[in-house]
Design brief:
Layout: H1 2-33, H2 37-66, H3 76-98, E1 124-127, H4 134-140, H5 145-166, E2 178-182, H6 188-201, E3 210-213, H7 215-218, H8 226-237, E4 240-244, H9 260-273, E5 278-284, H10 286-294, H11 297-302, E6 306-309, H12 314-327, E7 331-332, H13 334-349, H14 358-377, H15 384-388, E8 389-390, H16 392-402
Parallel strand pairs: 2-5, 2-6, 3-4, 4-5, 7-8
Antiparallel strand pairs: 1-3
Helix pairs in contact: 1-2, 1-3, 2-3, 4-6, 8-9, 12-13, 12-14, 13-16, 14-16
């Protein structure tokens, strides 16, 4: 009778343990569905450690209730069943710990620049609002005359509509979302930052900061995580501008099933839900952006204003190079300037689709400064003028190093 009783207690103990484990498995699955697998594993280890003495205590109480006055005994069956229960708990704890690495953590809302030097590009950069007159900065940009005209038109329209609203007149609805089309290095990101500040000046946005990202900042690697990641970026952009560079990459041409569609669906919903505190600017090559917009009716209805950024002329690229010179306290000799003009003229005449425009010029400037350093490092003494002058040799070697 005692053995049957003790064995029965052991069976009840094992059953209780199994029920607790099933409950724990359900809990960890729920935690991982929310992307918090690491915390779930740690919590379950604590849960197992906390549960073990109560299982023993439950057995003792049940034994004393059924066999009052007798000392608690552990029969062979009880030892077997109890050992099985403990083993099950240990296996469960190991499973929780080992599989926690398979569950990605939910991205937190982004509150600061998320790129470190030499880090893999998960491009999400927040640019806070700078002091100064955004209209003046726009007009002082080199080239981009048609872009400046479009931005001023948008600003003038918004200003007049606000005056009409103040007078109690009807105001037509207008979307402030924009599509920037053009090659790399044509100033799209710079203008997006200026537009955000203009929108703040007009009262369209409260903050006017810019959150700059691309596909890698919106699309996750795991099923169900893209919406969470996209929402985190959008949360960071509220009351400012969300700038998505190379937005067409969200819909690859040869992808039948891609997480980019989930990012687009999330973006469109938030554009509607937060329409009074979110402006989205998307950018990329003209043909690719047309394909991207045409791929989704929601995109077509929300992005109706396009601004094209033309490639810079060779003269404009030369002026940009001079701008780098002035900002960094360098000068250039006449023969070096002529060589620079000739090379830029040739590069523009033979440019490809991927030509970097202002980025190309910045790269040439950086290479020229490096070449000057190489030239001067061999001299025993260097004058102040020599420290500031780029020569024909520096420019020539800069273009050779760029190839």
């Amino acid at each position: 009778m005692k053995r049957e009783l003790s064995g029965g207690c052991g069976i009840m103990l094992l059953a209780f343990t199994l029920l607790a484990i099933i409950g724990g498995i359900v809990a960890v699955i729920d935690l991982r569905a929310e992307g918090d697998g690491g915390s779930g594993a740690l919590g379950l280890l604590v849960y197992v450690a906390f549960l073990s003495p109560f299982i023993y205590w439950g057995y003792v109480m049940l034994y004393k209730f059924l066999r009052p006055g007798e000392p608690v005994r552990f029969t062979k069956k009880m030892t077997q069943y109890g050992g099985a229960a403990v083993l099950a708990l240990v296996i469960f704890a190991l499973w929780a710990a080992l599989t926690s690495k398979q569950s990605p953590k939910t991205p937190e809302p982004i509150t600061e620049i998320a790129q470190e030097p030499n880090a893999p590009k998960d491009s999400v950069v927040i640019t806070e609002v700078m002091e100064g007159d955004p209209y003046k900065e726009l007009d002082e940009l080199i080239g981009l005359e048609s872009v400046k005209e479009e931005v001023h038109t948008i600003a003038n329209f918004a200003k007049i509509q606000q005056q009409r609203k103040a007078q109690g007149l009807k105001v037509p609805k207008m979307s402030f979302h924009l599509v920037f089309t053009g090659s790399p290095g044509t100033g799209k990101t710079t203008v997006a930052r200026i537009v955000a500040r203009i929108y703040k000046d007009l009262g369209i946005l409260k903050s006017g900061h810019t959150v700059e990202t691309d596909r890698s900042g919106l699309v996750a690697e795991y099923v169900g995580q893209t919406a969470t990641k996209t929402n985190a970026v959008i949360d960071s952009a509220l009351n400012g501008v969300l700038f998505i560079d190379e937005a067409y990459a969200l819909v690859p041409e040869d992808a039948r099933s891609d997480y980019g569609q989930e990012a687009i669906s999330t973006l469109l919903k938030r554009m509607e839900d937060d329409r009074d505190k979110l402006v989205v600017i998307i950018a990329g090559y003209p043909n690719e952006m047309k394909r991207f917009i045409d791929s989704n009716p929601g995109l077509q209805s929300r992005f109706t204003r396009y601004i094209n950024f033309p490639d810079y002329t060779d003269q404009e690229l030369f002026d940009i190079f001079k701008l780098y010179l002035n900002k960094n306290q360098y000068t250039i000799t006449d023969d070096a300037a002529q060589l620079l003009r000739d090379n830029l003229n040739y590069v523009v005449a033979h440019k490809t689709k991927n030509f970097g425009n202002a980025r190309y010029v910045r790269n040439i400037f950086e290479r020229a400064v490096e070449q000057q350093a190489n030239r001067l490092s061999a001299k025993p003494s260097i004058s102040d003028d020599e420290l500031s002058v780029l020569t024909k040799e520096d420019i020539e070697n800069a273009f050779k190093a760029r190839k």
